[in-house]
């Protein structure tokens, strides 16, 4: 398969994804959850009771009892509801739980977490810096690892290409979640940041495998073989390994997405999108960029 010959198509496709993702982020932004803006998340489930706790009944209860009426109600896969509301003290949380049990009978509480707005802003800043540090750190490490490979591509160019592919693999999932947040109200939290960091680690792992094979083939190729041919040969030698490794991960993630806990669903979705894009970028973006950077 001659990937280098058709690199314009592959890079063009990635370019369209990047432009679309940046446009989505600029137009819609990312809808942040309570981790970043502050608030409370409360999961409750009715075990038994004379009054059925359905959407309407629970919404009426919350409207009547909550001091802040700005809440969002989500049904969860394992039964019950997830309530997102303004931050409350532990005393108020226990009061709400007591009132809920008085109204609907036996209520099982799945989780409750409340985060103030100051802590939320601090988490947002630290999350952004975490991504910046990881991207720069990985790029500098790749530059150092390939320091002895100066022909026909300088080692620092391997680091720059790694930086480009990492940004590619982060921006596309972020763009998807910007659209999902605008269309369906899906919010991002610290799990989203963790998923992006995992994606970057997985992506650079795949990219380095291809680059390392390029390095080996560059040292062993004949004088009549062009650099583009060497890169294309390296891609084909690692292609099956990259695809098979990614598929085994994606199969597990698909199972987790459909059968795992609802609280991890969007974390898994981020991994699905990011790992798929990371596999694509290591084969169809990073390697073709090597031949372009050589010129």
From TrEMBL:
Family: Belongs to the SecD/SecF family. SecF subfamily.
Subunit structure: Forms a complex with SecD. Part of the essential Sec protein translocation apparatus which comprises SecA, SecYEG and auxiliary proteins SecDF. Other proteins may also be involved.
Keyword terms: Cell inner membrane, Cell membrane, Membrane, Protein transport, Translocation, Transmembrane, Transmembrane helix, Transport
Main subcellular location: membrane
Membrane topology summary: Multi-pass membrane protein
Organism domain of life: Bacteria
Name under which the protein is recorded: Protein-export membrane protein SecF
UniProt cross-references to Gene3D superfamilies, sorted A to Z: Multidrug efflux transporter AcrB transmembrane domain
UniProt cross-references to InterPro entries, sorted A to Z: SecD/SecF_arch_bac, SecD/SecF_bac, SecD_SecF_C, SecF_bac, SSD
Keyword Ribonucleoprotein found: no
NCBIfam families found in the cross-reference section: transloc_SecF (TIGR00966)
A GO term from the CC aspect: plasma membrane
GO terms of molecular function: protein-transporting ATPase activity
Single GO biological process annotation from the record: protein transport by the Sec complex
Chain ranges passing through the membrane: 9-30, 127-146, 158-180, 192-211, 243-260, 266-293
């Amino acid at each position: 398969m001659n990937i280098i010959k058709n690199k314009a198509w592959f890079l063009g496709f990635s370019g369209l994804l990047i432009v679309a993702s940046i446009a989505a982020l600029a137009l819609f932004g990312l809808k942040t959850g309570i981790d970043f803006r502050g608030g409370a998340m409360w999961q409750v489930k009715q075990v038994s009771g004379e009054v059925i706790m359905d959407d309407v009944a629970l919404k009426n209860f919350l409207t009547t009892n909550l001091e802040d009426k700005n809440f969002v109600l989500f049904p969860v896969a394992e039964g019950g509801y997830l309530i997102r509301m303004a931050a409350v003290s532990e005393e108020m949380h226990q009061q709400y739980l007591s009132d809920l049990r008085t109204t609907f009978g036996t209520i099982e509480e799945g989780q409750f977490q409340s985060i103030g707005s100051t802590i939320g802003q601090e988490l947002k800043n630290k999350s952004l810096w975490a991504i910046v540090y990881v991207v720069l750190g990985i790029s500098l490490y790749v530059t150092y690892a390939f320091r002895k490979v100066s022909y026909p591509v300088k080692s620092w160019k391997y680091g720059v290409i790694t930086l480009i592919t990492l940004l590619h693999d982060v921006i596309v999932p972020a763009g998807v979640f910007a659209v999902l947040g605008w269309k369906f109200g899906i919010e991002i939290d610290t799990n989203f940041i963790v998923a992006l960091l995992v994606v970057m680690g997985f992506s650079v792992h795949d990219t380095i495998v291809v680059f390392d094979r390029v390095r080996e083939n560059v040292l062993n190729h004949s004088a009549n073989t062009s650099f583009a041919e060497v890169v294309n040969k390296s891609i084909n030698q690692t292609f099956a390994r990259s695809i098979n490794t990614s598929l085994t991960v994606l199969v597990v993630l698909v199972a987790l997405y459909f059968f795992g806990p609802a609280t991890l669903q969007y974390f898994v979705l981020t991994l699905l999108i990011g790992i798929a894009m990371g596999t694509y970028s290591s084969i169809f973006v990073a390697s073709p960029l090597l031949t372009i950077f050589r010129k």
